[in-house]
Amino acid sequence: MELLFLPLLPYLAWLLWTALRHPIPLSYNWRSLWQRKVGTLSTAGAIAVVVAIFVVVLSLAQGISSAFVSSGRADQVVVLRPNARVELNSSLERDRARILKSSPLVAWDSLGPLASAECLTVKLLELADGSGSTNVLFRGLEPAGVRMRSQVRLVEGRWFRPNLPELVLPLKMKDRFRDIALGRTFTFNGLNWTVVGLFDAGSSAFDSEVWTDVETLMHAHRRISYNAMLVRLQAPEKIPVFVKAIEDDKRLKLEGKPEAAYFAQQTEAGKPIQILGQMITVILTVGAIFAAMNTMFAAVASRTPEIGTLRALGFRRVEILASFQWEALMLCALGGVAGAAMALSFNGIRTGTTNFETFSDVGFAFTVTPALMLEGFGFSLLMGVLGGFPPAWRASRIPVTDAMKGG
Amino acid sequence: MNGEAIIRCEGIAKSYFRDSLEIPVLQGLDLEIPRGGYFALMGPSGSGKTTLLNLIAGIDRPTGGSLEVCGYRLNDLDDDELAGWRAIHVGFIFQNYNLVPVLNAFENVELPLLLQPLSRAQRRARVLEALALVNLEDRMWNFPRQLSGGQEQRVAIARAIVSDPRILVADEPTGALDAKNAEEVMALLERLNQDLGKTILLVTHDPKAAHHARVQIHLEKGVLDRTVEVNR
Amino acid sequence: MKYLHLVLRSLFRSRRRTLLTVAFLAVSVFLVATLQSILATLDGFANNPNAANRVAVRHKVSLTNLIPMRYQDWIRQQPEVEATMAIQWFGGIYQDPRNFFANFAAEPEPIVRIFREEIVEYTESEFKDFLRDRNGCIVGKSLADKFGWKVGDVVTLQGTIFPMNPRLTVRGTWKSKRQADEQVLYFHFKLLEEGVPRIAGRVGSFWVRAKNADDVPRLIERIDRHFSDALEPTQSETENAFQLNFLKMMGNIAAIIHSITGAVLAALLVVTANTMAMAIRERTTEVAVFRAMGFTSLQVLGILMAEGILLSLMGGVGGIALAWLGAGAIQQGIGSVIPWLADFAIPTETLLFCLHASMGLGLLSTLVPAWRAVRRPIIEGLRAL
User: Fold this and answer.
1) B118 lies in which domain range?
2) Number of alpha helices (DSSP H) and beta strands (DSSP E) in chain B
3) Closest CA of chain A from C28, distance in Å
4) Which residue of A has its CA nearest to C65?
């Protein structure tokens, strides 16, 4: 999309130059816009709506991808069954897990090797708004697994203890799900699971997961093998060596994916929204260009005598052109700023979608970044250039004599 | 002066209000105009001549006095009744012609007839008749911008008479025309008065135009100054 | 009707302004129509009249938990049941994850019976071949055409959920009334069971066909009650409810689309009102002349309103026409990527919504400027220039 601006750059540069030389002061345009308040505000309002829709829809896609991107660490590897793509579909037998842990490439901290064999399952949890329930990912971890997710902080209660049906949930799930509080219990697989802690995962994908002890979860599901293992290596450069080693080892035959890449692949969940957002933006931008053109044509028509006077005073055609083009840009920029500001009010609102790869809910927030707002503002300028040029051109072509006559 | 009065004003007063300040324009004016009369309202700017014309034509309302035109007491009619009354009894001629630019001459003349229960063929016949009267049948498919000022005003006159009203009001009908076209328009009005018996009320600055009228009414500061019969 | 030519000509008095406004309206209505149609198409899956007899039975905890195969024996014996089928979402990839389509491992014999509203046209002998060949599969015609599969071709799916990559021989194809119903591949559940021993004796869900649609609620209730005390209770629901849950999982798409529609309509209202205000303002004198000639306020208001409504209707019709043209493109383009949209079309309700919305838009946007114009005293209008 940014490429759209490239062909316009020389034109914009020229406009800037004319403004700096200020043959016709910009305040003239500003006051003219203000004089036609109703027309200016309604057009700017329409442009603001377009820009706001653009920024808000793309902020959804942004929210999804930042949830996943902030989840992975550069020195950690997710070990999966080949072709499994996601942990949920993978399986990892206990003896293989033991071999992995004993690899000399694995990093250690004071408590032991930084490798966590994990078990995943999906369960329905009821939504807070009473509209039903949705699938939530339950992750069983080894104690090392909690230490390896450095972005996860406990904010209330305590961590789960081994071999007990205890759950620790993300605090952010409170907005969307029922019964997210210390001391609440959930019953499934014949056990009563108690919520003993709440954590904050810094808006990463873990903010959509329920954590518990891996052995308890496996026992409850009568599983004999784990799903996958997260391993921290001594240095990020060791990743290729480690991946090659587990792939070639006849006892393992496993696939290793850098954790960051593993999560990046899941940002696909935001693709449909992104495509939708771009489609909407293109269509609405075209519409807004028509609206801007209309307003500027009206401005030119009502100021014909004025233009004639300017020409009679000695201003050249190009200067008239630049002046009206600036006026269109101001009009659209006004809408752009208003639209970006409107979009900002959506920032932080949490919602969710389903990641169909893991078949579970991903919570995320509308993430209105400065870059997105700038992009939206850029679109308003594009509308100003394209919508403003034809009327400005027309204004510059008005013959002096005609202009003096008209009124 | 003979014949019954078609317009009867008794103590007509009109004031405008600007920021709660009362500006009197007409102050208790009495006037009777007989059927078939041709009257010119004259006087300096601000004397109230256009206001009087507007009141008689039923597009403005007096603030005092009684006004009877064509047998109706206009004071008693509501806005819609007044509109219906205008459609039947009054034809308007303006300084700037005020033709509808998107309609051709024929359609412009046809406009007032749309308000009456006439078939398309009946309307057409009446329009052609009116255009024949102003001698513009050959230009009836032209749009206003394709006509000269004099022609435009003649189309406007055709529009004013097409519904056969008894009264024609004309506010500076020659104000935008050159001498030759002005003379033509005035001759046309005279014919309408003499041949068709239309009562004509004319507001003008132009002494030459006023000369065509049979009676000149001079207003001064909202009261009747003098009435002059034109002798020819 | 007497005034139609007047309204039409007035509408095109400023041709450029009218065309630009109509273009803006058309583009925006196009967007609204398309978005609403997408929503309606998705909703159509949860409102499938053909599915009235079908019930989905799954594990109460979630779809990813499998239920014991033996449950089916009891369900089959219920008097309301016509047929049952064990079916498992396989989620296999053909060559590239982008070639997404639905593929299921199912018990082969009941497929045609359960989905007889969808599998409309097929060759008996081909389907017999499929029943005999444990490595065989059947596919919808348009799916087969998309990848150029012919009967006898071998299709290899790469398992994502299950660690197996079945090599399947296409044994038959079928045609449906809707394109979307042809975007499916079925293969033998037995093949999956053999390839993945850990699931032996378990399956994702049962598809149950009731003899009579009226029996469905009772059947659902009875199945769930019967298994409620089992270690693994079931959750039964109509096929439509099952699909609805899927749609809901994508998030609140309806809310997004409705808010965008609302925002776009608001922007349209503002812009159209501005255009009409401009159009009416420059005719202040004309309005006064009309009224002097004897037109009542209401008549003039009517003429002005007709103009505004006609303007926005032109935009609305233009937008619907664009959407109609675009619908074809969406079917071919996005429809092949997102199989749900294979039957994308603009439903009558959406069409009517857009027409009504644009009419309402014209009405609302013209009302204020037109009302102000006819309330203005005639003599003021005549003075204005």
Assistant:
1) 36-62+78-229
2) 7, 10
3) 6
4) A122
Rounded CA separation B201/B53 (Å): 7
Work out the pLDDT band at A407, boundaries 50, 70, 90. very low
- The answer on pLDDT for A354 being more than 70 is yes
pLDDT tens-digit readout, C316-332:
999 999 999 888 887 77
Are residues B92 and C289, on separate chains, in Cβ contact within 8 Å? Answer: yes
C271 CB neighbours in chain A (<8 A) are 42-43, 46, 291, 294
Residues 6 or more apart whose CB falls under 8 angstroms from that of A17 comprise: none
Average pLDDT score over residue span B145-152 = 93
CB pairs under 8 A between B and C: 70
Mean confidence (pLDDT) of chain C: 89
CB A332 within 8 A of CB A45: no
CB atoms within 10 A of CB C69: 17
- Residue A276 has what pLDDT? 80
| pLDDT of amino acid B35 | 92
Q: Do C13 and B101 touch (CB under 8 A)?
A: yes
A88, A124, A126: which to substitute to probe chain C, counting the most C Cβ within 10 Å? A124
Of the partner residues C21, C31, C273, the one whose CB lies closest to the CB of residue A283: C31
- Given a cut of 90, is residue C346 above it in pLDDT? no
Question: Is B84 in CB contact (< 8 Å) with chain C?
Answer: yes
Bridging pattern class, strands B90-93 and B167-171: parallel
Q: Which of residues 213-232 of C touch B (CB under 8 A)?
A: none
Q: Do A287 and C248 touch (CB under 8 A)?
A: no
Residue B18 phi, psi dihedral angles, 5° rounding: -125, 115
Containing H/E element for A171? Answer: none
Which positions ≥6 away from C207 have C-beta within 8 Å? Answer: C54, C55, C56, C57, C84, C85, C87, C114, C239
B with A: touching (≥3 Cβ pairs within 8 Å):
no
Pairwise pLDDT comparison (A195 vs A63), residue with the higher score: A195
Residues 6+ apart with CB under 8 A from B9: B29, B30, B31, B32, B52, B55, B56, B65, B66, B67, B68
Mode of pairing for the β-strands spanning C102-106 and C184-188: parallel
Q: Is residue B199 part of a domain?
A: yes
Taking the C-alpha atoms of residue C357 and residue C364, their distance in angstroms, rounded to an integer, is: 10
- Residue B218 forms part of a structural domain: yes
Taking CB atoms and an 8 Å limit, are A280 and C260 in contact across chains?
yes
Q: What is the pLDDT of residue C168?
A: 95
Residues 18-47 of B with CB under 8 A from C: none
The model's pLDDT over B74-124, given as tens digits with 9 standing for 90+, comes to: 999 999 999 999 999 999 999 989 999 999 999 999 999 999 999 999 999
Q: Which of residues 27-86 of A touch C (CB under 8 A)?
A: 38-39, 42-43, 45-46, 49-50, 52-53, 57, 60, 81, 83-86
Q: How many domains, chain B?
A: 1
| C10 Cα to chain B: minimum distance (Å) | 6
Distance (Å, rounded) from C-alpha B178 to C-alpha A85?
90
Residue B73 lies in a domain: no
Q: Measure CB to CB from residue B86 to each of C5, C293, C377 and give the nearest one.
A: C293
Residues C128-154 have pLDDT tens digits of 999 999 999 999 998 999 899 999 999
A402: confidence class by pLDDT, cuts 50, 70, 90: low
What average pLDDT does range B141-164 have in this prediction?
Answer: 94
**Any idea what the CATH number is for the domain that residue B194 is in?**
3.40.50.300
For C292, the closest chain B residue by CA position comes to B59
Give chains near B: 3+ CB pairs under 8 A: C
Residue B1 lies in a domain: no
Contact assessment for residue B38 and residue B213, using Cβ atoms and an 8 Å cutoff: yes
